[in-house]
Amino acid sequence: MYVEVTLILQQQTADLVYLFDDAPKICDFNVMNQKMRQAVLNAHNTRKSLLAKGKVERNFFSHENMPTATIMLYVVVTHMYDCVLEKKAAYSRPCQKRPPPTTFIYTGMNFHYINTEVENFRPVKTPKEAIGEAAREWWDLHMNYTKFEGVTPRVNDFPIIPFLIAIMVGIPMYKEGPACEGCPYGYKCDERTKLCKDKNL
User: Fold this and answer.
1) pTM score, two decimals?
2) Which of 4, 27, 88, 110 is the most exposed, having the fewest neighbouring CB atoms within 10 Å of its CB?
3) Do the strands 187-190 and 107-115 form a parallel or antiparallel pair, or are they unpaired?
């Protein structure tokens, strides 16, 4: 059996966003809860922190680490939770290994399948575990981007994780330099993670 996890990349949005604490009351169209949202948040920040500190290997065959990041933003959902994007994810669960093309305005999707054993007609891996595994698999593709800051996760029987981000061809994924020394205006360095956090958080 496999669990389907879909990554939705939102390049641009005019959707209404809400405070993270309000999400359970407002995003009432699926079974996503705050623990699941926090699990997604933690998965990304852990990997971004390792990269910012220069503790991520350049590739599978290399013992050389990637350079430290002078600017690497902390992923937040506190002030930026997009229920409309979460709803798009809720309605894009084709449950097929090769789903039909789906058109969203300013939105694209990546699909990933996670194998799991079945006991008593239920997958052994929980949705939380599937999300964590998907985050690890997608890390090399998108999540080390400097400006990746907003996340709107969603999970059900087949978890889907939308992201508010646009990666531009020809623009470096992040700026190399002493860890956390180049935080932009309005941000401060978190010494533990070496990520730039919004001063208002």
Assistant:
1) 0.63
2) 110
3) unpaired
